[in-house]
Every structure is written in structure tokens, then in C-alpha cells.
Amino acid sequence: MRDSNPIQVKVWRGDAAGGAFAEYEVPQQPAQTVLDVITWIQRHADASLSYRFACRVGMCGSCAMMVNGIPRWTCRTHVNKVRRDNRLTIEPLRNLPVIKDLACDMSQFFEKWKRAEGHFNGVASRDQPVAAISPREPARRAASAAIECINCAICYAACDVVAWQPDYLGPAALNRAWSLQNDSRDRRQVERLQAVSSDGGCLQCHSQQGCAAHCPNELNPTASIAGLKRMAGLSFMQKKYREPHA
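Request: output the structure for the sequence above.
Response:
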């Protein structure tokens, strides 16, 4: 049964050159999500509205947007839990260039994954047996705690350091680097540590925990970044004391 009081929705409309909010009235529905609201507007009020979605069940992360100022997966965000005075404000993710309306350009997000050496470089060939790694090993447990990231960029949008310093690699890229630094099968750990401890790397993190607070998969990129900081500090001290002294 529909609620007779429609939801008042402000949606950001525009592109990289600029834009403004448009206002819509959307009928309320039982168990209605923010993605349902956006879909209703596109189908019934303005077919030109652009946004992204795919799975609709909290698996892909492509529907991430700012909802009343907070980055969220809109497919898993119920209207009755986030509306304020029966109002919603929906914007594209923060810290990313806008393509059109609610769709962002993710290029810089994934370029930073590359800069952080966020890809696996295995030692074994495909003809060798799969290495047996005990799930009880501390390094394996550290890696396992960070591997459920699905690249939705919620943490990137939540990060104030990214907003202040656009060159900062960001929580997702550094979280991925941490998981690989703890993978005994990877062979580029030295190069990766150099990449993530250089300008824009892990040492720029202010440990504000915005990434951990908003991650839909309940990961803690701040803890991963703290691990990289420890690795970087230990590497620096080992190098310093190995160098000959005059």
C-alpha cells in the first residue's frame, strides 16, 4: 500500500562543467530503496536522468551515490532510514569527476590502484601446483581481512584526505596494496612498498576512519594503511642501519 505523502527529492543534474539540483515528488512504496526512488524518477519524471546500477542486491557497488551527504550503496539504503523530514538529497559520489548527473568517472580511482601496484604478481607459473597457505598464518589472516573490497569507491568518496590532496592514493588502493603485501605468493612486495610510501601514499593518511565508518562490506582500510605505515617505517630503519657510516 502506498503512502499518500510523496517524498520530496532533490537530485543533482549536470556534468563536469557544472549543474544544479532538480526537485521531484516521488510516491512512497513499502520497503523502498533510494535506488527505487532514482529509478522511478528516470522512468516516470525525466528519462534523461543518468545514473549507474547493475545487480540491485548489494553485490556490485555500481549504484553508489551521496545520499543526504553520506556515500551509500543506494540499492541497500532504505528510504525510511535516511530521509529527513520526508526529504532526500541525492548527489554523485564526492571526490570523483562527474560525467553526467549521478554517474562519475572512475578513471582516477583505478589509475591509483595501478600506482599502488594493486595487481597480483605471482611467483609460480600456471603449470605448477597451487601453493598451500595455512589460513592460520598471521600474514594470510591480515590479507583475508582486506580482500572483500569490490571497488565501489564509497571509501574514496568518504575520505577527506582525497578531498584535500587529490594526488593521495586513497583508502581502496592502499587497502588492496596491504592485502598483496601479506600474500606470500606475490613477488613485487619491494616495489609495491616503495610505491605506497612515496608522495601521495600511506603516510598521508590522517587516520580519521571515514573509510571504515562507511564501508558497506565492513572493511577497515585505516587498519590496512596503518599496517603499510609500519612496513614503511621498518623498511626505512633497516635500510638506514645497513648503510655504511662515515
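The chain has ten helices and seven strands.
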